[in-house]
Design a protein that fits this description.
- The complex is a heterotrimer of chains A (about 400), B (about 220) and C (about 180).
- By secondary structure, chain A is mostly helical.
- Chain A has two domains: about 200 residues, Cytochrome Bc1 Complex, Chain C, CATH 1.20.810.10; about 130 residues, no CATH class.
- Chain A has 16 helices and two strands.
- In chain A, strands 1-2 form a two-stranded antiparallel ribbon.
- With about 220 residues, chain B is mainly alpha-helical.
- Chain B has three domains: about 30 residues; about 160 residues, Cytochrome c-like domain (Cytochrome Bc1 Complex, Chain D, domain 2, Orthogonal Bundle); about 30 residues.
- Chain B contains eight helices and four strands, in the order ααβαβαααββαα.
- In chain B, the strands form two sheets. Chain B has a two-stranded antiparallel ribbon with strand order 1-2. In chain B, strands 3-4 form a two-stranded antiparallel sheet.
- In chain B, helix 2 crosses helix 7 and helix 6 packs antiparallel against helix 7.
- With about 180 residues, chain C is an alpha+beta fold.
- Chain C has two domains: about 35 residues; about 120 residues, Rieske [2Fe-2S] iron-sulphur domain (Rieske Iron-sulfur Protein).
- Chains A and B meet through helix 4, helix 5, helix 10 and helix 14 of A and helix 1 and helix 8 of B.
Chain lengths: ~400, ~220, ~180
């Protein structure tokens, strides 16, 4: 019966062939490690956020006079409202953990290189969209930190040349963050995840065109591919289950960890909190913003720090694929980069002070230096590797005869 | 690969340590160290706390997100609730005896709402406990608080002038009960949340183990080739 | 099944794999189903709305022959204090043919009629007159027992759960 139904559909719609080509028989390298599971995990969290977001929206009131109270209503009166709310707030942080690990994997293994540039750029766009969604979502509880975080960040648009002040007012719908801002942020916060879904589809189409990279960096011949199902369906599900345990520990036992104390106080336009901090996932970029004393300079630096990743396919001038796998200097730069981002994150959380400002400026300098130095380091590293004597896999790239020995 | 894991984990550990250090630094810098105490979550403590809050705090503070109906969840009977709520209905919020305008006039401000106070202050329950016991008299004879020197609040429990040790012990207990109740008020579903959490995580561990063996079984097919 | 040689007892043996697969699938499926429950439940009326499921009305203000319309669960409810004459007439009449019911079946005390004030045709609020109600939308007629006499309404006006709280109040929504 089921087969007849599928046959009927297949005559009219490429259901079976689509599922076969893109899921069940889709060829995947057999050596993918668990770092390749974060893309799937990100997709799962997107679905979780959309689901919990819609159910929250059934009770939330996007009005400056009602918003804070409506969140309390959800927490206290709505059946399992507290659970849906915490799923959504913990899910937002989980989303960024997964995305940052996903990006780290891509940087480490050089998966941004040709022919995967469009994947990298669509990923970049997705990151920007997620950041926008998170920023707007944070205003919705209408707590002190929500309000003042939005006030500070919308203020940054003053940096727009010539029309800066007008842009800020246009963005807010009012002279300062207010009810107009809240309502439109709610509308857009509801919309953006569906834009994200659309670009995820584009991201996946690009992926299925060039196929997955793998830890060795080489384009393994077809004999090294295995069907996605059941190998990677089960592996991804296992990885997801492990992740979900950690997620649920936070969700059920430490749900307030990511909620700033100040945000339990309703927004007061007359009183600024002593210490304005964005959510943790924005901290490194916030640190870079504050590191530059000039207002315009700070905004430009912050924007560049997010956009610079787009240049990676062209900054990395090595001929050898696989990223850090075969290249010790690239690997060292990667680790320095990770530590630097963590330091920047710490700096972003501190109140302004003399020492911390210097630390932030040094860390910012290192951050951009890594990108700027990469073309030179990668070029000279290649020459250094060849002089030292290449491992067999790399020799294969330069001399096809060596590949038979592999 | 292993190095990468090691480095990433080290970084995360360093980051967490820094974050925790930074928060402790911010919490501890202007005030003396917070007093130690453990929350008593029993319904007896919560009920004592509720009655104390009603007697001593509701003069000036609201608990506007708590309704009288919710107090049934900490064990109050309908009869007890009728006494507690007086003129207010079950669906009414637990509000101060004075309305906002009267407090604005009398006190010069409307004191903060207490429903979320244990979450809204760095240090949480320990801070509120320390605050209640932190009142002292200045040399000029005015009230001040070791943890919030600029406070305009007067000493609600009497810690700043009671000298008898037995009576002071009573005050410590009162402070503990009040904080227990306020902690409940800020998060009434906490117990339910943790109970469900234990079951969910137990289930997930089971599912993870099953999926692990599934994964191994399926991947062993590759070895057969 | 005579292929059961030693070989097929290896891990990866299809039968054992299938069993593990079925168990894992069942456990996963149970988890997914359980995870749906809070979402479904969250759409059910919240605690405060359930509290508003009852309305208490004092009867002392309603003179004989008078009707009060009160709100219950967002709907209008007609509380009619019937005169002795009205009650007598209703007790002895059979009402309409569409939905035969005796007056006794529809009241707890003969001088009080409590019915939901929505026409059972398409939900308009009928208009009061001395012998009952007329619905302005499509012309249905109801008597002083709320029974449909004529018009497109298929059933009598609904009698909600209610109880008397002593003699001077009724609680609608409770038995």
């Amino acid at each position: 019966m089921k087969n007849r139904l599928i046959e009927w559909i297949d005559e009219r719609f490429p259901l079976s062939s689509f599922v076969k080509d893109n899921l069940t028989s889709y060829p995947t390298p057999r050596n993918l490690n668990y770092w390749w599971g974060f893309g799937f995990l990100a997709g799962f969290i997107l679905v979780l956020q959309i689901l919990t977001g819609i159910f929250l929206a059934m009770h939330y009131k996007a009005d400056a006079g009602l918003a804070f109270e409506s969140v309390q209503y959800i927490m206290r009166e709505v059946n399992y409202g507290w659970l849906i709310r915490f799923l959504h707030s913990t899910g937002a942080s989980a989303f960024f953990v997964v995305i940052y690990l996903h990006m780290a994997r891509t940087l480490y293994y050089g998966s941004y290189r040709a022919p995967r540039e469009l994947m990298w750029w669509s990923g970049q766009l997705l990151l920007l969209l997620i950041m926008a969604a998170a920023f707007m979502g944070y205003l919705l509880p209408w707590g002190q930190m929500s309000y003042w975080g939005a006030q500070v960040i919308t203020n940054l648009f003053r940096a727009t040349p010539f029309i800066g002040d007008q842009v800020v007012i246009w963005l807010r719908g009012d002279f300062s963050v207010g009810d107009a801002t809240l309502t439109r942020f709610f509308a857009l916060h509801y919309l953006v995840p569906f834009l994200i879904t659309g670009f995820v589809v584009i991201h996946l189409i690009a992926l299925h065109t060039v196929k997955s990279s793998n830890p060795s960096g080489f384009n393994l011949a077809d004999k090294h591919n295995i069907p996605f199902h059941p190998y990677y369906t089960v592996k991804d599900l296992f990885g997801m289950a492990v992740f979900f345990i950690l997620f649920c520990v936070v969700l059920f036992f430490y749900p307030y960890f990511f909620i700033e104390a100040e945000n339990h106080i309703p927004a007061d336009p007359m009183v600024t909190p002593s210490h304005i901090v964005p959510e943790w996932y924005f901290l490194p970029f916030y640190a870079i913003l504050r590191a530059i004393p000039d207002f315009m300079g700070g905004v430009i630096a912050m924007l560049l720090s997010i956009l610079v990743y787009g240049a990676m396919p062209y900054l990395d001038r090595s001929r050898f694929p696989g990223g850090a796998r075969h290249r010790p200097f690239f690997r060292l730069m990667f680790y320095i980069f990770i530590i630097d981002v963590v330091v920047l994150g710490y700096v972003g959380a501190q109140p302004p002070g003399d020492t911390i400002t210097v630390v932030g400026q040094v860390a910012t300098f290192i951050y951009f230096s890594i990108f700027i130095l990469l073309p030179f380091v990668s070029y000279f590293e290649d020459r250094w590797l060849i002089k030292r004597g290449l491992p067999l896999e790399l020799q294969c790239l330069l001399d096809a005869k060596k590949c038979d020995l592999l | 690969m292993k190095e990468m894991i090691a480095k990433v984990i080290t970084s995360i550990v360093v980051a967490t340590a820094c974050t925790v250090a930074s928060f402790t630094a911010i919490a501890a810098s202007p005030s003396p160290p917070l007093l130690d105490f453990t929350i008593d979550n029993s319904t007896a403590a919560l009920q004592r706390g509720a009655e104390l809050v009603q007697g001593k705090c509701l003069l000036c503070h609201d608990l506007k997100y708590v309704k009288y109906r919710h107090l049934a969840d900490i064990g109050f009977t309908e009869a007890q609730l009728t006494l507690l709520r007086g003129e207010s209905g079950l669906e009414d919020a637990v509000l101060s005896m004075m309305d906002s305008d009267a407090r604005q006039e009398m006190l010069g401000m409307v004191p903060p709402d207490l429903t979320l106070i244990t979450k809204a202050r760095r240090g949480g329950e320990r801070y509120i406990y320390s605050f209640l016991l932190g009142f002292a008299e200045t040399a000029e004879g005015t009230a001040t608080n070791r943890y919030f020197p600029g406070t305009r609040m007067s000493d609600p429990l009497g810690i700043s002038y009671v000298t008898d040790e037995g009576e002071r012990q009573v005050i410590y207990q009162q402070a503990a009960d009040i904080v227990a109740f306020l902690s409940w008020a800020a998060d009434p579903h906490a117990t339910e949340r943790k109970t469900i959490g234990y079951y969910v995580i137990a289930y997930l561990v089971l599912l993870t183990v099953l999926l692990y063996f599934m994964k191994r079984r399926i991947w062993r097919r590759l070895d057969d080739e | 099944m005579n292929d059961m040689t030693d070989e097929s007892r290896k891990p990866g043996d299809p039968e054992r794999r299938e069993f593990l697969g079925k168990v894992t699938g069942a456990v996963a499926g149970a988890g997914v189903a359980a995870a749906c429950w809070p979402f479904v439940r969250s759409m059910y009326p919240a605690a405060d709305i359930l509290e508003k499921g009852t309305s208490t009305i004092k009867l002392g203000n309603i003179a004989p022959g008078e009707m009060k319309t009160v709100a219950w669960q967002g709907k209008p409810v007609f509380v009619l204090h019937r005169t002795d004459e009205q009650a007598e007439r209703m007790m002895h009449s059979e009402g309409g043919n569409k939905d035969p019911q005796s007056d006794e079946q529809r009241v707890q005390k003969p001088d009080w009629l409590v019915v939901v004030g929505l026409c059972t045709h398409l939900g308009c609020v009928p208009v009061r007159h001395s012998d009952g109600w007329s619905c302005p939308c499509h012309g249905s007629e109801f008597d002083n027992s709320g029974r449909v006499l004529k018009g497109p309404a298929p059933t009598n006006l609904m009698v909600p759960d209610y109880r008397f709280d002593d003699d001077d109040a009724i609680v609608i929504g409770e038995v």
